[in-house]
Amino acid sequence: MPAMLTLPFREEKRQNESLPVAASLTKNLSTLSLNDSLPSSLKKVVPGSTEFIPRSSPSLNSVTYSSTSPLTVTSHINSSPTPTAPTYQEYVGGTTYFYSAPEATTVANSGVGSSIVQTIGSTNSTGVPIVGGGGGGGEDEQHLHHHRASITLRQPSVTMFPGTPSHAKTAMAKLHQQVVGSGAGSSSSQTPDDTVLSSASYFVSNQLRMEIQHKNNLTLATPDPTLYPDLPLEVDNYHELVPLEQLPAVPKPHLIPYSTSTYKATHIKTGVRYCLRRVHGFRLPNSKCMVLVDMWKNLSHSNIVQLREVFTTKAFGDQSIIFVYDYHPDSETLLARHFSNSDSLNGYSDSFSSNPNAPRPYSHSKNHLLRQQHTNGMLSETTIWSYVIQLTGAMAVVHALGLACRCIDPSKVLHTGRSRLRLSSPGIMDVVTFDGSLSNPLSLIPHYQQEDLTALGKLVLALACRSLIAVQRENLQTSLDLMSRTYSTDLRNLVIYLLSSKTMRSVVDLMPIIGARYYSQLDTVQYHNDILNTEMAKEMENGRLCRLLVKLGTINERPELNMDPAWSETGDRYMLKLFRDHVFHQVTEDGRPFLDMAHVVHCLNKLDAGTQEKVCLMSRDEQSVLVVTYAELKHCLEQSFAEIVASSGVHKALD
Length: 655
Known about the structure:
- This protein is elongated.
- Helix 9 runs antiparallel to helix 11.
- The protein starts with 11 loop residues before the first helix and ends in a 7-residue tail after the last helix.
- The chain is α+β, with helices and mostly antiparallel strands.
- A six-stranded antiparallel beta sheet has the order 6-7-8-9-11-10.
- It is built from 18 helices and 16 strands.
- The longest helix has 39 residues, at 517-555.
- It has helices spanning 12-30, 139-149, 166-182, 192-198, 206-220, 290-297, 334-338, 362-376, 381-400, 428-432, 445-465, 476-486, 489-499, 511-514, 517-555, 572-584, 597-609, 630-648, and strands at 64-67, 87-92, 95-100, 115-119, 152-156, 234-235, 238-243, 260-267, 273-279, 307-313, 320-326, 332-333, 413-415, 421-423, 614-618, 625-629.
């Protein structure tokens, strides 16, 4: 027999008084027929009915049931019965308590592990189950209503992180296998099982936390005036300049025919960090190139560093032009990530030869490429295709807008973490090599687009051979032969197509070669998205509890408020003080501190949700005992914190 239909009284007097009432109620109900229209308050409820909703017991040592006072029972003949408030009885520790439930309290909204029962198809706008009710309808409508009513949902009364879902664990293991197999020099030493186990905690994973903290530290870094005394304090609307790369003693321009330097700077008005690329000793001869700059500023892509602003300045003591880009901390170029320092852009680097520029035989070139592959380690084909997909995606957008990248080079492609590539320094070549004598600034764009495709082919070949000398004309055939030993025919055909200059090439023609590998790339991105969503769910709950702790800490032990030194020790604040001791200052039977994170989190979750569960609070001298609900404690917290906010004059609270 469910608890709702039983009367587990411990007092004989209460049972004797209930017998006349039960007999009177039975006599009234015996005159009713099944065809009568009953009010919803007198409708018969049986355990087999879909509207039968048992009341959850609030605790193991208490019994709660719903009963209606006999003085408020109305006859079924009255067409508009007066709604009655149910009276509840609770037996705790040998004492029987009687109380009336709040109007907004539902039958199943109290007790440890209580839940709000929602019946699909039979709930009102507030989610409270509708008991009784009527309304004629066809047979199909009644069948549909019965089908919907047979599905019930029990929602928890508190909100918390339920744990790492299974698909996120699969995603972690999958991405870890890709990182281990990529051969990209990753320092991760965890196994997939360790990764899954470490993610089972209720805090963000250590690896992700370290990555984010490292990027935040780099973003907040400030310059040391003693190390860089020549840096200006301000450049236009930017200050706090920090060099991002070591300036070479002898500048060696490669792509850009000018010396360049890169700085991190903070915008004076907004406080946002940006990357400033300075071109030394450049004087803007013509403003026609600003047409191309405006086109670049309007271009936004996930694999291109966004250009924000271009201006000239004399703050560095010369005539310089500054390109302002988005700042991506902890980025490194493909040149620094995948190629050793022994490589040279202009030829071989042989310490045993007195003339490094002397020509070498074919066997020496082949052996040198093999040594580079063995020393640097081979990249997995999955990683190379991932790079190709990202770069071709950015190139397709740029070419479609009538522009050319002109920055596809190992020294200009940034790796911003987790195999994410971004093209840096867009638009610089269009400005520094602009020919003012041309009537149409866009006339050379088709030629530059063909150069982009050739540069992409050289970059892929260099990555496959892990050597920059592999793209030299005399080493192309040797590099392609070595590439065929390790990688698929499709990748080799891609490089051959990109390096051929006999026909007009298009980035669109690369799509059939890439083929279904796009789906693998999309699969990896979605796996990563699942992991980040799981980590965000953890921190969402942690942030909510942190705001709750801030409110409690602001109220508890406050010396005075509005000239009242006893404010924190009286009224609602006293209950919050006892609740603080209940959560954080409990001890075991032998007096040792009771440290249980689950207890703390569970209590704070109930306080934040304001459940109807009761908690017993005891003063430190054990002379005062208060039994209150978490809903009352939440009300005390909100009222007390509202007083502090009103006294401080701050209009925004911690919501």
